[in-house]
């Protein structure tokens, strides 16, 4: 019996400890962490999975980013406790969180990871989307939650928001009347690059 819940501030220490256990030292030096620093997680998509005794077995987190100028989710880290790996818990968290993301109106997800694992959830290599260096381009994978959401997108992945001390009031969006929305987004998705979606609430105070 397992319980999947949105991560709460009280889970923070345990989740960090699980990630430290499952990843090599220095994980936060990875270039993908530069996209996360100072940016609030997408709280309702960050999930914990506990067993019947309340032991934390797995966790997944998501951050908002901009990919080729469009809103996207950055999936990860996801980790399953070494004693529980290979039992389907990672897949449970992947499917549950992606379903929540789709229901929440997100159009596209990207991650940096092993294609042999993530392709079972529909992730494919993103040929034209660049993560900050150094990132192996073969590990940059994307999933469409809305049909066509990655079609024709070419460009870098950038932070969704500036760090708080540097944050400025975002400029008003300039949308020409003749500017059609991308097939994978709705008109209200065309926010300025630093505009936070309503569902991007910070986890802690
Ligand atoms: C990767 C991870 C999240 C998968 O979760 P899990 O619960 O162990 O995996 P599942 O039970 O859902 O799936 C098991 C299957 O995935 C495969 N798999 C697991 N990790 C894999 C990887 N890195 N590459 C390819 N396949 C992988 C297993 O071989 C197994 O294959 P099978 O179904 O053909 O037998 C987990 O093993 C883990 O925490 N690893 C360490 C941290 C990590 O690498 N996280 C991902 C990077 S963000």
**Helix/strand/pairing class, anyone?**
alpha+beta
Q: How big a fraction of the residues is strand?
A: 25-35%
Per DSSP, the total helix count is: 4
The CATH architecture can be named as 3-Layer(aba) Sandwich
Helix-strand pattern: EHHEEEHEHEEEE
Gap from first CA to last CA: 32 Å
CATH superfamily: Gcn5-related N-acetyltransferase (GNAT)
Mean of residue pLDDT values: 85
Rg over alpha carbons: 17 Å
Main sheet summary:
9 strands, mixed
Helix content: 10-25%
CATH topology annotation: Aminopeptidase
The tally of domains stands at: 1
The total strand number stands at: 9
At the first level of CATH, the class is: Alpha Beta
pLDDT < 50 runs, ≥5 residues: 172-177, 190-205
Gross morphology: globular
Which ligands, by name, code or SMILES, are bound? coenzyme A
